[in-house]
Specification:
This protein has 376 residues and is an alpha+beta fold. The chain is 52% helix and 16% strand. Strand 9 and strand 10 form a beta hairpin. The longest helix has 37 residues. The chain starts with a helix and ends in a 10-residue tail after the last helix. It binds flavin-adenine dinucleotide.
Length: 376
């Protein structure tokens, strides 16, 4: 994965950012090298790799190109919908397409009026014989317009709050699905982020994932499992920026010596490396925990902590990397400028870092802990 990243993806990263075009050549590279196959078990056309391997892969790719790392992370998000909520028939029908890369996946939860408060969504799905009819819209959806399979959340019962949400697989060819505006944005520019419109969009009833009303729980379980992927994207960015800053600091001289020898710069590099290593410890622990089959509140908490720490690390370390390069760090000629822009969104999507803190605090309050208070 590292070799592929260094030799084939790194040389494309600046161009992908500049053109802001979806990199189909990187998708082709992933297809040819069986990278998407790591996301499904053998019986569903994959190679059955571990969760740990997936986060290491996303980390290695994001070290050189966060847009390319995001392609793998969101493909995993799609695969998780089937792994966690699909019937055997649905897995057989859809997972081989994800594992071969024939179809790019997308996960459509957010709407114009509901991001952090996902339960406030307004899209609706009404049963009509052997079909559902979806009306509404989604916003900020990664892979809008390039995906073949959309995992879509909509309300089958408007009065039941989050218990009224159901999940559906919507094919890009579904009648009544339209792609709206693709957003120009600050970072991960090669990734498409756009609107989806559902105007009487018809999907077969056998495309519903889980039962009616299970959609919110499914969405949250998927996010518990996919957040480490975004954490891995953040860590990749942070390590990539640290490595670049170190190389630069070795070669750039001021006041008669390399800037790496000036203690203020050396201290900064040491802090950057330490943060990356701490983030990696948390991320790999989370990957192993998933592979050991841990689920529920314990996973929610560790996965939120991992996403929070790795992506806050991404932002602070890439900002420091720009500082280490001085004026050159601000220039588009050097990759740390792109890395700093790319890092920002990792603190926002798949649940903002404020929401991660709420999840962590909620689980802390739920836990029964032995405690010692002074005087008791
Ligand atoms: C590039 C990009 C790609 C994306 N891809 C996808 C995708 O593929 N699929 C998808 O479904 N969504 C996607 N999103 C949407 C993303 O998940 C949401 O933007 C995010 O969850 C925040 O929602 P919001 O933008 O509506 O902000 P809001 O929910 O309006 O939040 C605004 C601010 O208030 C804070 N806040 C909100 N509620 C609370 C609270 N209770 N306590 C404390 N602070 C709070 C937030 O942390 C944030 O700082 C993407 C977004 C971006 C930018």
């Amino acid at each position: 994965m590292r070799t592929l990243a260094r030799e084939r993806i790194a040389p494309r990263a600046a161009e992908i950012d500049k053109s802001a075009e979806f990199p189909w050549d990187i998708v082709e590279l992933f297809r040819e090298n069986g990278i998407f196959a790591t996301l499904a078990d053998e019986e569903y056309g994959g190679i059955g790799a571990s969760a740990l391997l997936t986060v290491v892969s996303i980390e290695q790719i994001s070290k050189v190109c966060a847009t390319s790392g995001l392609i793998l992370a969101v493909q995993e998000l799609g695969a998780l919908a089937f792994k966690l909520a699909g019937t055997d028939e649905q897995r057989r029908r859809f997972l081989p397409r994800i594992a071969s890369g024939e179809s790019i996946a997308a996960y459509a939860l957010t709407e114009a009026g509901s991001g952090s408060d996902a339960a406030a969504m307004r899209s609706e799905a009404r049963r009509d014989g052997e079909e559902y009819v979806i009306d509404g819209s989604k916003r900020f959806i990664t892979n809008a317009g390039v995906a073949g399979l959309y995992i879509v959340f909509a309300k089958t019962d408007l009065a039941a709050g989050h218990r009224g949400i159901s999940a559906f697989v919507v094919e890009s060819s579904a009648p009544g699905l339209e792609i709206g505006r693709i957003e120009p944005k600050m970072g991960v520019k090669g990734s498409t982020t756009g609107e989806l419109f559902f105007n009487g969009c018809r999907v077969p009833a056998e495309n519903r994932l889980g039962g009616e009303g299970d959609g919110f729980a499914i969405a949250m379980r998927i996010l518990d499992r996919s957040r480490p992927g975004i954490a891995a994207q953040g860590l990749g960015l942070a390590q990539g920026a640290t490595d670049y800053a170190l190389e630069y600091a070795r070669g750039r001289e001021t006041m008669g010596e390399p800037i790496a020898k000036h203690q203020l710069i050396a201290g900064m590099l040491a802090d950057m490396e330490t943060r990356c290593e701490a983030a990696r410890g948390l991320l790999y622990r989370c990957g192993r925990m998933i592979d050991e089959g841990v689920e529920g509140p314990e996973l929610s908490k560790l996965s939120a902590m991992t996403k929070l720490f790795c992506t806050d690390t991404a932002m602070s370390v890439t900002t420091d990397a720009v500082q280490v390069l001085g004026g050159y760090g601000f220039m588009q000629e050097y990759p740390v400028e792109r890395m700093m822009r790319d890092a920002k969104v990792t603190q926002i999507y798949e649940g903002t870092n404020q929401i991660q803190r709420l999840v962590i605090a909620r689980e802390m309050l739920r836990e029964q802990r032995a405690f010692l208070l002074a005087g008791q």
